[in-house]
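Sharing a chain and its predicted structure for anyone who wants a worked example. Both blocks are below, sequence first, C-alpha cells second.
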Amino acid sequence: MFPKYNVIVVGAGHAGCEAAVAAANMGSKVLLITMNMNTIAQMSCNPAMGGVAKGQIVREVDALGGYSGIVTDYSMVQFRMLNMSKGPAMWSPRAQNDRMMFAAKWRQMLEAHPNIDFWQETVPGLVVKNGVCKGVVTSLGLEIESDAVVLTNGTFLNGIIHIGEKQFGGGRAGEKAATGITEQLIGFGFESGRMKTGTPPRIDGRSLDYSKMEVQDGDVKIGKFSYTETPTITKQLPCHVTYTSEEVHDTLKEGFDRSPMFNGRIQGLGPRYCPSIEDKINRFADKDRHQLFVEPEGWDTCEIYVNGFSSSLPEDVQYKALRKVAGFENMKMFRPGYAIEYDYFPPTQLDMNLETKLIKNLFFAGQINGTTGYEEAACQGLMAGLNAHLAVHDKEPFIIKRSDAYIGVLIDDLVNKGTNEPYRMFTSRAEYRILLRQDNADIRLTPLAYELGMQGLESRMERVESKKQNAVKIERYFDETSVDPDLINPLLDTIDSSPLKQKIKARSILGRPNIGIKEMRSVLSDIDDYLVDYDEETITIAEISMKYEGYIRKEQEMVDKMDRLESVRLADHLDYKSLKSLSFEAREKLHQIKPRTIGQASRISGVSPSDISVLLVHVGR
C-alpha cells in the first residue's frame, strides 16, 4: 500500500511542517502523518508570529529555506518591529496573522511539493530494529517503512486538558490525545516528564466596546519576514490593549479553590515567561492590574484572542471575571481558556543534530523537546528534517553554532543544559546577539543552506551576494565622503553633539550617539542622492556595520576564541567516569551528554572551567 519513504514526519504542527519541507527540499521522499488534515499548521494558541528573539528565529528559518516566513507574510494582518528604541541587536519583527489564512497557505505549499505525501491517522508506535528506527505503526495497524522518523507530537502525547475541576484527554480543544509512543520509548530506556501550557478564552469581538481600550496600530512602514518576493500588505487590523483590575483579581480568586494549578491536579511545570492569569495574580500579588492584548484572529472573523488571560479556572469564573474588564462588560465567550498537560522528553537525550542517542535515525523536534512557541518549534523541525535527510544519505550532520544563529543557541541550550520547564527564546540567551540580528539572517545562513544542497536557493544566493556587495559600496562611500561643518553643525546642535571645526569623514559622524544615516540624509543631499539606488535593508546593514563596528569586532574575537575550543574533538568512547580529576558532577554530566567538542563540553551545566582544563590536558592541549 505504501512505498518506502526516506523520512516520515509524525505531526503536522509548526515543527512537523518545517521538518517535512526541509527533508523534501533536500531531495528526500517524505510522508507527513497527521491525525487531522484540517488542522495542518494550526495556530493553536495566539494568532501571531515573531516577537522578541522569536522574530529573529523566523527570519533565520526563512534564510535556511523554510516556509514559516513566507506563510507569515501571506497571512499577515498587522506588522510591528519591536524594541526600535533600543540597539539593533534587540530589534524584533512581529506579525499578527489571520489564523485560517496561515493554515491554508501552509497546506497549499505542502501539497504543491512533489516530494511530500500525506496520511491522516494517529501513530501509536515506532518500528525499531537493532537500535535503528525503520518506520511507524499506525492505529489501524499499518506498518509504514522509512529510513528515518521525525517525531513532532506537540502537546498530544498523553495530553490532558484541564478546565477547573474538569479534566479530559486531549491534545488540543476538540482533538484527542496521542497514546502509545511515550510508553514504547520509555521501554527503550528514554526518560520522560510532564509539562503544562495554557491558552486564553476566545471572545466574540462584536460584543466588545473598543472605545474603552487603547488602540495598538501596526507600523506605518510595514515590514516582512521572508527574504523572498512575498507581498507587503497595504492595510492592517488594529489590536487593542486593556487591563485587569483589583475587582477582576478578586473575582478570579473566588475560583482558586477549584483551580487545577493550586489543588495539585496539574503536575507539569508551565512556561515561566507566559504564566496564566491566576499564576500572575498569585506570583505578583503587589500588582493591582495586568495588561491584556485584544488580538483579532483574522480579516473575516469576529473571534478575538485575549493575550494575557491564559487560564485553567472554571469557565464560570473566567466568564464572570472577564466581564469586569474595561470594554468587556457585555462580552460573549466562544470557548473558555484551558490548561493542557503533556509528555515531553528531556532534550539531553539528543545529539546536536536532534537525533536521539538511544535510537539511530529517530529525531525529535518541537514541544516534545520541552520548548514552547511556534517559532522555537519551527526551527527545530527544520533542523531535524535536514538532519534526517543527511543521516539516511550517510552525510555529516548539519549543526549550527551559537555564533551563527539563534537556532544554534536554542539547540545548544537544549542538548547541553536540558530544561525542566517550557523553554522560550530570548535575546538575553545569545551571547553574540549583535552578530545575530534580524536584518542579516540571510547573509549568515543562506550560504550554509545553499552549500548543503537545499533546493530553490539560487535566486536567494544572488540577492545575498548583491546585498553584501552593495553594503560594502555604501561603507566605502561613507569612508571617502567628507562632511562640511556648515552643513552638519545645525543637525549636531539639535542632538547636543559637539560641532565640527573642520571637515571629517561621514563615517566618523555615524559613530556618534543619536545620529544615523536617516538624520544625515535630511541635511546632506549628496548622501541622499547616492543612496537612492539602494534598498532600506541594505542601507541598514551598512549603517549597523559602521556604527557598531567596535562591538561587532569584539564579539567576533570572542567567537574566534570559542571556535578554537570547538575545533578540539572529544572521542565518542571517552570514559569520563575514569577521569578522577574531573568533579563528580562533571563526570556524570559528560557521561550523560557525551559532547563532541571541548566547546560543547564547556557549555554543559555543572562543568566548570577547571574541568575543561582537565579535558584539555587529557586530549593533549
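Comments welcome. Residues 458-480 form the longest helix (23 residues).
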